[in-house]
Every structure is written in structure tokens, then in C-alpha cells.
Design a protein that fits this description.
It contains six helices and no strands. With 219 residues, it is mainly α. α2 runs antiparallel to α4 and α3 runs antiparallel to α4.
């Protein structure tokens, strides 16, 4: 598999599969982070989102775009590529929230996108597959990918807005890591997810500089 993750595989039993409700939980967690800021002050989101090159506003739009894209992949079930959509100026991402909508608008669209993905995850039988560049995936895989985008970029946004990294919703990091990073090392699940995505360190292991998850389906 092509990932930048090294270390001994975890020996603990595999957690429960990632579900549509996990996507909803992740989105509710990030929505709370977004709306903790003055809901009418979009300028508060113009700071960089932690270690990424985007602003907090653009990062939130990116998360929304991923949720919508994953829902569409499960709806259309393409096997060779993403469904052919682009933004109004030809850009890859189609989700753009008007600035005047503020933090409340970002949170509302995020929650709606998460609900679309969660509904598709729950509606599709487990045997269906759809394209993702990191591996043809199943409904659980798309739930995990949606959740990881919300969690990791949610921490990025929180770092930009407050300078602090919030904890993930209980149990969710473990399920996401088990599904998308099968060779992840042992350790506290929140810390392992942060390490797997190049945003932190683990004792005795170098920081990740190149990484990707594995969305292929495993027995």
C-alpha cells in the first residue's frame, strides 16, 4: 500500500466500523468550533489554519467540498474517477460559502454536507464500490474519509482561531485510524491520528513529512 506510515501494526482488536453517525458526530464537533467565534465576523477566519496553507475560511470550505464529493461518489458509484464537476471559475472545489453567511453559515453548510454523506453511507449496501485516488472504496471507507477530513482540518482551524488543538470526539479517532491507516503504530488514538496525518510526533518515531491513507477495502 502506498502510505508514508511506518511502525508496528496495532495488535488491539479492530474497533467498530466507521458509520454515518460518526460523520455526523465529527461535523457537530467542528460546527461547535466554528460557531464559538463571533458568528457575524467572517474576518476572524482569515488567519492561516494551523499548518496548512489555506485560511480557516478556505479550510472549512475544503472540508465541506470533501463531504459533498464523497456523498456524490457514493450516489453515482464511478469507478474510474471523480464525477466531473467544477466550481464557477473552473476550480476543482465547488463549495463556496458567501462571506456574509459568517460562522453560522459555514456550520450550517458543513452539517448539511455531513448529513448528505451519512445518508449515502447508510443507504448503500456494503458491497458497492466507488472511486477515490487512494483506493477504490466502500461506504465505510467514504465515511472514514469524510470523518478524517472533518477531524484533522477541524484541528487545523481550531489552531488558527485559538492556538489550541481540541480533543477529538471520544472513540472516533480509533475507528478512523483502524480503517484508513492499517499499519499505524500503537499509541493513544488521538495522537496516532495526528501523527499519521503529519501534524504531530510520537515517541521514537520521526514526524511524517509525506503521508496518505489507504481507502481500499480489506477483509
Amino acid at each position: 500500500m502506498s502510505m508514508g506510515v511506518t511502525g508496528a501494526p496495532a495488535t488491539a482488536p479492530r474497533p467498530e466500523p466507521v458509520s454515518g453517525d460518526d460523520v455526523r458526530t465529527a461535523a457537530a464537533w467542528l460546527a461547535e468550533i466554528l460557531t464559538a467565534v463571533d458568528p457575524g465576523d467572517a474576518s476572524a477566519f482569515d488567519v492561516p489554519a494551523g499548518p496548512v496553507r489555506w485560511t480557516c475560511w478556505a479550510t472549512a470550505e475544503h472540508v465541506i467540498d470533501d463531504l459533498l464529493a464523497y456523498a456524490l461518489q457514493l450516489a453515482g458509484l464511478p469507478h474510474l474517477g471523480y464525477l466531473p464537476l467544477c466550481g464557477p471559475r473552473g476550480e476543482d472545489e465547488v463549495a463556496h460559502v458567501p462571506r456574509e453567511a459568517g460562522a453560522t453559515g459555514l456550520a450550517e453548510v458543513l452539517t448539511a454536507g455531513a448529513e448528505l454523506l451519512a445518508t449515502q453511507v447508510e443507504a448503500r449496501p456494503t458491497h458497492v464500490r466507488a472511486f477515490h485516488p487512494y483506493g477504490l472504496s466502500d461506504p465505510e471507507g467514504f465515511a472514514a474519509m469524510g470523518a478524517i477530513e472533518v477531524l484533522v482540518h477541524g484541528q487545523d482551524i481550531a489552531l488558527g482561531l485559538t492556538g489550541e488543538r481540541p480533543s477529538f470526539p471520544p472513540g472516533l479517532a480509533a475507528r478512523v485510524v483502524a480503517r484508513l491507516f492499517p499499519e499505524a503504530p500503537d499509541g493513544p488514538a488521538d495522537d496516532v491520528l495526528v501523527w499519521c496525518t503529519g501534524r504531530g510526533t510520537l515517541p521514537g518515531l520521526p514526524r511524517q513529512t509525506r503521508w496518505r491513507w489507504d481507502s481500499t477495502v480489506r477483509a
